[in-house]
Amino acid sequence: MSREIGVAVVGTGFVASMHLTALARLPGVRVVGVVDVDPGRGQAAARGAGTRWTSSLDELLAWPDVDGCIVCTPNDTHAAIGQSIAAAGKHLLMEKPLTTDVAAADSLVSAFSARGLVLMAAHTHRFADYGRIVKHTIDAGEIGRPVFIRLAILGGWIWPDWRAWVLDPKRSGGHVFHNGVHVLDLATWWAGDQPVSVYAQGRKETSGDLAIYDYLSLLVRYRSGCTAVCEISRGNRPRTFGYRDVFVQGTTGSLSMPWDAEQGIAFLEGGTSLLPGDGQVGFDREVAAWISAIRGETLPAVTGEDGRLSVAMAAAGEASLRTGECVTLESVGYTLPNPVASEGVSRAL
Predict the structure, then answer these.
(1) pTM above the 0.85 mark?
(2) Which residues does residue 7 pair with via DSSP β-bridges, in sequence order?
(3) Residue where one domain finishes, among candidates 70, 96, 124
(4) Which of 115, 151, 250, 274 is deepest in the core (most CB within 10 A)?
């Protein structure tokens, strides 16, 4: 596909603005419209992007110049919107999580596969510089096979107020679905292995009245015996606090990444080695990878199957929070894909 690619953005909140900015930087791509149920937000986004807007998804999907959609709406809408996009024959980049339950993820992956359409899950941290550096180092065999991963992303409260939809577990799926998928997906991509179970613990740091846990600790066990310990927080104090911790122990070496830098350090038999970094936040690369897959130049960098796996891990995490037990992915309805589909779990960018 050498012609211009027409992209529509569904939902016009903060994350949508990041995608719109990334689209504006890509040659051969045009934003053909946005859709939002809020006229004020929809019109404002359209003016900023120099495009048209509508409040009707059906109307937008009927526009002949729409080749693909980027969906940036609340989590509980993803399954239905995704099915409408598949039925309209459009490609899709879906903000995380792909859906909020495994059965819906199965159905969505099947719908796009049956029509030969690109479905890509927007796990942006895979495209950030630090995520790519760690993956490249592991795939190059510099530290051997991972046996232990620690990943923590901790920060202060980022949601505007008590009306935010992310605080309602019926809409967000819970914090494991909304932000936990970041660390679950990234650790699994680094491990290059099949997760078996998740054990989760949570705390309500901001207020005991929260309906979700704003701090999570997630322990993932993999088929090979590798273990990942992941933390995600949006309730640290002070509010301006930001911290990231990365450590991977391999069979022949280890690597760590300081919290205040994009560069990491590999500890090898021959001594230490600095890993490169340029601080790229990821949205530009993510959107470019999706467009490349639409053009048929590459396979999707994050497949629908990858998104389905993250949904299963999140579902297991939420079940673990409710029961206090370690929960297997099989018990939440996840079945292993065929070997061809499962290659998406470990694909390098």
Answers:
(1) yes
(2) 31, 68
(3) 124
(4) 151
